[in-house]
Amino acid sequence: MMIESRRLIEQVLVSEQPCLGAVFCSYTFDPSYFEDRILRALLRLQGDPEEEAVRYHEEARAALRETPVACFVDARVRRGGRRLPYDLQLIRERTFHPKVILVLYDGEARVAVGSGNATRPGHEQNAELFFTRTLRYDVPADAAFLRNVDRFLRSCAALATHPGTQLTLVRSALAARISGTPFPSGHAPTDALFVDTFSASMLDHLKEALPEDARVTRVGILSPFFELDDLDIANDTTGLASVLSELLALRPGSPPPLDLGVPWEDAPLAPPSGGGTPVLAEGEGRLWASRYRESVDGEDIERLEYFGVNRVTAKRVELQLGSGRPGRYEREAFEHEIAEGRMWPVEPPTVHAPRRILERIVRDHEVQLWLHPTATLTPAGRASRRPLHAKLFLLTVTSAGRTLTYALVGSANASAAALSRGVEQGGNVETGVLLCLDGEVRLSEMLPSLVCAPFESVRFEEREAPGADVDFSAWLEDVVHDAADRTLTVTWSQQGPAGLEAWSWWYLDRELAKGVGPGSGPVVLSDFELAAAGAELEFRAAGRSWLVPIRVADLAMLPTSAHLAGLGVRELLALLARRVGAERLSTLREQRGVAGVDAILDSVFGEGFGPTDVFKAWWGLKEDLLAASTVSAFRYRLLGPMGARTLWERLRDLPRDSVSDDEIWVYGCELLRELEQLVLPESADLEAKQALLAELRTLLRADLTRLRPRGAGWLDGVVRFYGLEGTHGKT
């Protein structure tokens, strides 16, 4: 088994099927990368976020209105810069460290569980490790995996500072597709198990997975240890030593050998300049590098390899290759390579790990150190950086005469907070996937770029623990925009860091409010519109500022652009009847104003509009409803600002000097008739869509009862035609 090198976006997010919803969990989070790269691929957006920023933003808003997307991130380390209205839910109560992606399509779900954050390094640059899989809703084992992921997401929501709106929609779509799938039988094999620290610690999950008679014969740990995404710095009593002790205590026995994979951040790509020609005899016991060219399929490729020189004789050089296997080289040829500058001894590698912990481990275990070079060469010979950020734990055991390797792939670093404690015990929120592999699988097999190195040949250097900054934005529990009422509601938290004095809230370049000390309860700000330039509230205090995500209460009510807000009857009729597109209407309103749009609509409708115009709008609406692939899309077409309910309410409230009561009533009857006759295609979401349809039909019937004409002789036949016999009113 080997780690496969593929981009996560292409593996999980690119599909010919429309996405029905997605959830992302990340520690660090870069909104610009997420919106311009991840969402662009997921939602199949066509615009260019840099060259066509406004158009791209409107396209993305329209897509998000129909495809729910939710993100959970650690509040302390995320970056600002969010512009789009997906749910961004912050976790403050625990170190939130999982990296999970769940994407729903109609026939399948895709999951990724691993080590990479929702940032460019996490998805494109680092050496990351993800378990990815396509899961079918009707397969019991796949549905069981998805149920475990769903339980995890529910627990995340309970920790978040606000409830959000999009997660419920994603979970409902998932539940509709797996609710009828039976649970796997008790003896059904499970090759991959999703685990998280809400239910138990990672070590407890490992203990549960191991057979009763298992004897541990080898342990492998690959971890960056103390990267900035691990705020719980280990020490010699609670760090890796205690984690390893607990690992081995799962199945007591003689201490097994340990493979330890760590980052090598100062790995060289070329010999040092001005150092003279190295002396081979002085290079025994050290790591060496070799840079050379070779032809592969007619293409000239540049290579870089590392190896150890164990012994130098008169004719040969005995090596330990980077893979750990022995090798030999003719001394004369070796010295020629040195003279040509293609081989050179490497300075002792610097490893950011606590020496005192590792020395304690070395006393009890046979330790093989494996280095991952951060600096690499592209095939063209250009320098490239690929820092190690992958996390992997391997336990090789013997059980019932078989050799098995249990692998834990996920987000947990080699620390007690990540592995030894569950969330209830104050540990991190972590996730992983447990795999059972045949035979002995070692770190070097899964990541061939690792370089074998003697423990004594490296220099250990500990990183300082990052300081904990005061975050006054923790005083804000929720910031909600109601697009229908054009309000922004800011809710103060009951708990926040001490010392808050003068503060102010800003949106873009406009001050919204200011005060001294924390407030209480919600603060409602009127006349607020969410601009394309930002979806965050800026909180200023103590000479600093923090950006807090603005949650949209109902995305169906959010206009794609400000120019599509407050549309009139004729504009809505033209849109639904396909006589003008939303993008063109927005451009006309921006460039010509309402008067200019009226002039264009006069050429479409004349001075007013007639029954044919209304009926065409209802027919266009019917086509839109049949084409809606998600519940969110269906709801928007029914209840949104350019949907059926809005157009009906605009018609219903027209001045009676422009249209008669009887005419309005017939328009409503025709809409009700179209909705009554609408036969939705079979889908997992059919029940939810029918409930929304029934809601609008009930509202229509109530309005038609109130608007029913009085005393008209032709009324009874019309009532029977539209099936309104059960509607009571005066005649």
From TrEMBL:
Specify the superkingdom: Bacteria
Q: What is this protein called?
A: PLD phosphodiesterase domain-containing protein
